[in-house]
Specification:
This is Sulfide:quinone oxidoreductase, mitochondrial. Pfam families: Pyr_redox_2 (PF07992). One of its GO terms (molecular function) is FAD binding. InterPro entries: FAD/NAD-bd_sf (IPR036188), FAD/NAD-binding_dom (IPR023753), Sulphide_quinone_reductase (IPR015904). The chain is α/β, with parallel strands linked by helices. It folds into 2 domains: 216 residues, FAD/NAD(P)-binding domain (3-Layer(bba) Sandwich), CATH 3.50.50.60; 153 residues, FAD/NAD(P)-binding domain (3-Layer(bba) Sandwich). The chain is 26% helix and 24% strand. It contains 11 helices and 24 strands. The strands form 7 sheets. Strands 3, 4, 7, 8, 9, 10 and 21 form a 7-stranded mixed beta sheet that branches. A 5-stranded parallel beta sheet has the order 12-19-13-14-15. Strands 16-17-18 form a 3-stranded antiparallel beta sheet, with no helix packed on it. Strand 23 and strand 24 form a beta hairpin. Helix 2 packs across helix 9. The two termini are 36 Å apart.
Length: 462
Amino acid sequence: MSPKLFSSRARVAARLTAPSSIITAQASPFIRNFATASSVSPTSRNHRVVVVGGGSAGLSISHQLLRSGKFVQGDIAVIDPAEWHHYQPGWTLVGGGLKTKEELRRPLSSLIDPKINFYHDTVGAFSPEDNSVMLGNGDKLNYEQLVVAPGVSISYGSVKGLPEALADKHSLVSSIYGYDHCDKVFRTVQRLQKGRAIFTQPAGVIKCAGAPQKIMWLALDHWKRAGLYDPSGSGIQISFATGLPVMFGVPKYSAALEQLRKERGVEGLFQHDLVAVEGNTATFARPNGQEQVTKQFDLLHVVPKMGPHAFVKNSALANQAGYVDVDDGTTRHNKYPNVWSAGDASSLPTSKTAAAITAEAPVLVRNLLQSLEGKEPDAVYDGYTSCPLLTEYGKVILAEFKYNGEPKETFGNWFGIDQAAPRRAFYHLKKDFFPWVYYNSMVTGRWGGPNIVPGWRSRNNS
């Protein structure tokens, strides 16, 4: 039985009187028109909904809940230790020299509505049996409903020698996966004049499974425009070393990308999983007990392995793989009916992208609200996700699909367009529209998902 919650008046009073350390937002024309949220003392530690994570999923869900009009100040709490919130899909654009990493981040506190309590702390432990979350500082938050959406952890140490190679400013080893390193990528691309360039993708789950080759296609186009690359193999040679047996997990788009690979003279090293970097030598594991393979390189772009955070993986909420164990359709936990999850931390069997969250969040919010009213969840997530695959400067394949790799194409349905064909219009969606709509609509809770058209705004939003 959960502890008795404060009355609305008591919650407001506690929120106004609790000591707080104000997190100052940088002045920016892009920061939403919120008063800067405060990091609050857990004096007021009873909430109707606690959301773990201030990333794409956590902010979208918490603000959609707030915009439902069913919560007052202090009813909703967000927990996250981060100072900054990053538009991570834009790191590919940074790697291609199209944007700076600084323009794609905002102070996290500036993105959280002041009606939401913001706990600027880590999670120590979950106690779903007594409806509470222990913070890293030892304090406890009690909840009626819990949303777990902290994303996943990037393990740079999963590749031996990678942390040292990334830190070496003189090395031609880089990665778009991480704020600290994504701007190194384009510098290495510009420096390479000839030799072997290898772009890797690990076996297993990663954020945006198309990103490892997006940066490859941009680099190839850069070298082609500079007269350093042609498909005959003179000048620069390019290899795509992936732990997967195919270019992409959805057959329709994989076929299109395989055709591009062959046309552009890119070597395909399939089922090659990078395990070590030493000097200019990359070592790859091979499946079924085959011997490891070493390759020499002059440029290496690395995608590290990724996985659930330890505080999720080691909790009662996790499945065997370490992800929050939720129903594929309702996003509700399979054991604890007042626990929910979306985004990268969830067990939802779809690609881990920001686009997936646009479809997951409205389903979760609807079903959580139903649960609060004592009703059964009636919204169903179909696995929708999207991956805008940059194939060159000015062209994008807009992959959209749902569970079982079945295409679910917005523009194909509307206009009969084949989205597996690279198009300039899709490029401007990726480069210009999506970053804008992310900060102005998605994380503010105004984005109602890909099924809400026209305008892509939720019915409940003002």
